[in-house]
Design brief:
The complex is a heterodimer of chains A (355) and B (615). Chain A is of the alpha+beta class. Chain A contains eight helices and 20 strands. Chain B has 615 residues and is an all-alpha fold. Chain B has a domain of 260 residues: MetI-like fold (Orthogonal Bundle), CATH 1.10.3720. The chains are: A alpha+beta (355), B mainly alpha (615). At the A-B interface, helix 1, strand 6, helix 2 and helix 4 of A face helix 9, helix 10 and helix 26 of B.
Amino acid sequence: MESIRTENVVKIFGAIRALDGISLLIEPGELFFLLGASGCGKTTLLRCIAGLETPSSGSIHFGGREVTKMAPHKRETAMVFQSYALWPHLTVGQNIAFGLEERKVPKPEIKRRVEEALEMVQLPGFGPRSIDQMSGGQQQRVSLARALVVKPKCLLLDEPLSNLDAQLRVEMRREIRRIVKENGLTGIYVTHDQEEALAMADRMAVLTRGKIGQIGTPEEVYRAPHSAYVANFIGETNIMTGEVLEMRERIAVVNTPGGPIRGRVTDPDWMPTHGELVRLSIRPEAWRLHLDRGDNPVSGKITDRTYLGQRIQYWVETVIGRQQVVEMNPHVIHEPGENSIMIHARHDDVVVLKG
Amino acid sequence: MKRGPALFITLLVCALFAVFFIYPAGMVVKQAFEGEDGFTLDFFAAVFGNPIYREGLWNSFALGISASFAALAIAFPLALVGHRYDFAGKPALGVLVLAPMILPPFVGAVGVKQMLGVNGAFNALLVKAGVMNAAMRYDWLAEGRFAGIVLMIALNLYPILYMNIAAALSNLDPAMEQAAENLGCPPWRRFFRITLPLAMPGVFAGASIVFIWAFTELGVPLVFDYGRTASVQIFDGLKGLDKNPIPYALTAVLLVVAALVFSLSKFVMGRSPLGTAPRPKGRSSSLRLHGWKSAACSMLFLGVFTLATIPHLGVLLLSLAGRWYGTVVPDEFTMHHYIEALGNGLVVPSIQNSLMYAGCATLIALAIGLSVAWVVVRSDLKFRGVLDAVVMLPLAVPGLVMAFGYLALSQEGKPFHFLVGAGGSPFMLLVIAYAIRRLPYVVRSAVAGLQQSNPMLEEAARSLGATPARALRRVALPLIGANLAAGSILAFAFAMLEVSDSLILAQQAQHYPITKAIYTLLSTLGNGTELAAALGVWAMVFLSVAIMGAAVLGGKRGGLFKVYPPAIKRFPGGSSASSRVRRRRAVSGVRSAVRRYLQRWIHRSHSLQIYDSYE
């Protein structure tokens, strides 16, 4: 178990700055997520940590050691590849034993640890099978076992679930988190799937165009995004603009065409001033329908609805724009129509962001 | 595709192969066992009992093995360096090292003979450098003839291996190597544990072709006056074929050995459908080199190129030489040989003949190849795998064996005699022989093209009201046109270069193809050698243009030379995948298949430079 620190890591491919000054501290034993749209640099950062790419500038540290220029095979990281990268000329057992053989572990111990690893990923007795005989989900587990068996300082996972079908993906999330936690590993997990990140991460970093957008626990990032980009990327949200009327503590009152709306300022490095143009982010599930009294009332008309069983989704046309509203466990279904309705959002649920 | 046409094509092709391929080869074997009183092993006993034939067979075998290893020694480092590093001039150098293929090795041998002879350029160079006594020139080709033949063949054929290995390496998921590195494996051990085992299919595919080629090579030993190989012994025995059964037995032995090697390599490959199937690719890990390291890699490629083109240079110099005796370069240069060649009774007709033979053969191969590819990739016939294997068989059967079988069968009163045209024209025989032997190239390129193009694109056309034939013509053919053109050009080029069929089947001077004309000119007194060289230069120019054209048109990464299909791959929804696999794939596959196809297509249309194929 070791901490991993990157300091101002820059990686330039030709004219593109794939990583533009990334500084991160990942605590020992933490399952840390790198999240972002494709092309944001998350995989490049992971590969820099594995040593498969060398940063153009900046440094990477494992514990107290600098590893920026160290060859990949000396770093004692273990990576799970998106394509699994299982060697087809070796059996399942030989694939898993590979890293141990490279570490000159005695034969009997290799045998024992391979069996343990297979049990850990719930594939006991699959050692002699060839890779072609394994299904996609099984291959995924084998590649996980291959990485885990060497007891790496750091487990690196590059979109390990993206080639699995939806049901298996959900199953494997819990599985991977269990294994990482049981073995006390420091794990870095790259994904573009925000649900995966919310479900599994201790902390996560949202990357955008080679820069860190925000770092925090899933709850922090979801509840208190620091920018409209992050708010939009993690979950769905309604974004509107307005002008600051009043600031009290970290609560701002923002003037909108639909009247004043109160909300929290989440970015600790920013304090809006009177008259500044800002953006508001309100999650669909933060809006409530039909409460006579409440915070931040806005009136509108339902223009469309989608019933999804556990929840219902409405589109409400208001003077501050079309709002998406979600009601969980709906008892009454409102049909689109001419009748005017009211929606409210608690000021805790309204996030005020830089304009 | 409907069952009916697929079945029809399969049966037709199988029938054609039975008559023009299996029958001649089988006839050779049969004759070898048939004495006056039926079955006999006497001829084999005669072959193996005679030290001369034993030596010939042994030499041929040694030639095949040595040439394969020599070619491997040249090709593997090239392919590996090219795979692993980026260095200055790599794209251009990657094409340059393929250059040796533009000359049949026996023509190159003429150039080498000129250079390594007693009064050749190499000795002259040594004398000039003061290393050798001018009065005691060493005859390199007297003692070193076997090594010379090995080297000639290896230097000519290593590109086939190079392309196969490069293709195998480039089809590997880079993550395969990175995973090993990541698990603590240093680079040199990674090579032996991961890279080499995974590249073995490419090595075997290429090496088996090189072996079969060298094992039955006829031209080079003939030019080097090396009579002690089975191939030359067969050639020499052709005159008295009706009385002498020994050539049959020798040919049968060659056929059996070649078939064994072919099946062996197929067996080795068959066990491992290794990481050759395109998968989601990790990022390439080729390392950009700078400074002297980059220069060293460039020098390696350049060095191989220089070494391999010495024969070509020799032929070129010879064709321009007014007088070249005992000096490093000719004393005087002249265009005289080219002009004289135009007036020579052999040269111009031979070019016309070759163009005609090769052109007709290519058309036939194209028609058959496309139909076969269609059945193999798109139909759901149970036996289409067999069909695919059958049309690849010509690679396993040495050209010499086929030529010999055709010759034997086209004698007066034999079944193929009707194929001999008026005045003994070998037109039909050569066209059929060329077409069948070059068919694998066309089939492979057409199959590759069809596999890359998504059947859904044709299904879309069908759903919009196109008949199957129109869907084929308007959607599928335009998409695979580049592959077809590339395959045809190669087939054409190699038909023009064909040696064994041409030497053996063309008997009258007015029907000679280029290669036989060159061979005949070589033994003509006077300036025959120089005229042959001039004709050889024309052939080189012609073939370089053709091969470059083929490369431009889409011979990606030497895919045309890959002998074995890695397994019949197809897109989800294609009819071959078993329903279980199909269901599994369909979930994740449909979208990614469309995406993959588009990416490939975009990639292809943006990479019309030749070098892109080999980077």
